[in-house]
User: Fold this.
Amino acid sequence: MQSQKEQILRDVVTYALLIIAIVCLAGSAAVSLTSCSQKTVSEDAMTGYSGYTSKSTGPALSMSAAQHCPVPKSERSYALYNDGSEFSAEEYASIHEGGFKSPLYDPLSTFSIDVDTASYSNVRRFLTNGGMPPVDAVRIEEMINYFHYDYPQPKGEDPFSITMEMSQCPWNRDNMLVHVGLQGKRLNYKDVKPSNLVFLLDVSGSMGSRGKLPLVKESMEMLVRELGRNDRVSIVTYAGSAGLALPSTSARHRRTIIKALDRLEAGGSTAGGQGIELAYRVAWENLIPEGNNRVILCTDGDFNVGVSSTPELVRMIEEKRRAGIYLTICGFGMGNYKDEKMEAISNAGNGNFYYIDSRREAHKVFVQDMRANMFTLAKDVKIQVEFNPARVSQYRLVGYENRLLAAEDFNNDLKDAGEIGPGHSVTALYEIVPAGLGMGAQRVDPLKYQESEPVPELRNSNEILTIKFRYKNPEENRSRLITRVLDESSMEFGDTSDDFRFSAAVAGWGMLLRNSPYAERLTWGQIQSMAEESVGPDEMGYRAEFIKLVKTCRELNS
Assistant:
């Protein structure tokens, strides 16, 4: 009888929320969570939502909240679904896909690099559980950068090599696709700096399920077993309040650290801001000059006590990063996962962001790629591309929507940007429309007070674009510049490298997941074929796993 009452109550809550969402869509009512602004249900989300797991028993929908008060001047989307046990809500920052631009009016494309991979593993979690992901969970650049690419190691003084290729765009054969690969120098393990790590672990009640705190403890144990004798670990926990679970301890005392992890249990509310304050204080008190000083935050992001709004947390992290302490954020769990909050914090804190959905992913982040993820090769890495209007009519950056910078930010060394670890690679794709095919960008009237024509001496140039990179060494505050030029030397798509074709397949997959209008007539089957023909060496099986996920999408959309 009790279970029947609980089921009836769950159904009542589910359908009540559906009714509210429909009313909002009609524009006849405003839904306010804390006297904030209206939420509306997007048409795309209603027709393509994803939040079901294989055990879902109720309807699923996605809500988009314009100007929701914790996030000024931005939007937030919600993935709402009934997972069979309780009503769940996940939060994602809304993404507005970038369109085509004219190099005559917008000649510069400027953005911060991004080595985060959280979006890919989170999307994998949705698909593995039998549902399509919400569109705003899909950040295409993070999906592309999840994979390793066979870029050459740098040979000169600069810590990066730069690889560029150009060929036909697979989703629009009239256009071209430019592939840019940045490869960081691998770490010399003989010169590894000692680490001062602070594990900041969420042990609140929301972390009690199997895919949360138990997986956090396993993940941190994996990392501990990878540390050297000169490394140190502290453990800070937070629930209703923050506390020091383990003072700074040498990694030589591995058993002591693991026992402290084993003792952790979940319960209480979530004072995340207080935990961050304590973690940075502990990191500062044990700071290793010129060492690797880093806070590793493991949470579902559901902060609800004290400093908890996204802008408050971002401001706090921006203040802390000046101390030279880096931040790694690892998201765990489902149901109340706050992706939007964690991504914003990691971007503000000289950090990187991962989503751990399994022991296999934990092994990838904390064992296989540990040194790339836990050390910093260069900071404030920015890219600026100038297109030659004599050769390019329109261009579009694929992904990186929340990493865009103003053109003047490129030369501003006070402007924060992304970090890259040793051995990390960063890949960016541009879709370009060749000169003479003026389709894509929104037209504007000719300028009255200045000319908008290509430089006469470059009209016959074979240069497609000039790309510039700025970066700072970790201990420096003045940036260094690298410049390269891409000439008009394209090849047939089938003759390009495996990396070119595979990254194009991942980008196309992301566009279909986002219902992108730029996907043209691209199909799941074409993406699968593209990926199967470009797997290349795949020792860990990550590219093979990608093909399985594409097949899942075909089945779910058949």
Remarks:
- Confidence is low (pLDDT under 50) at residues 21-74, 81-87.
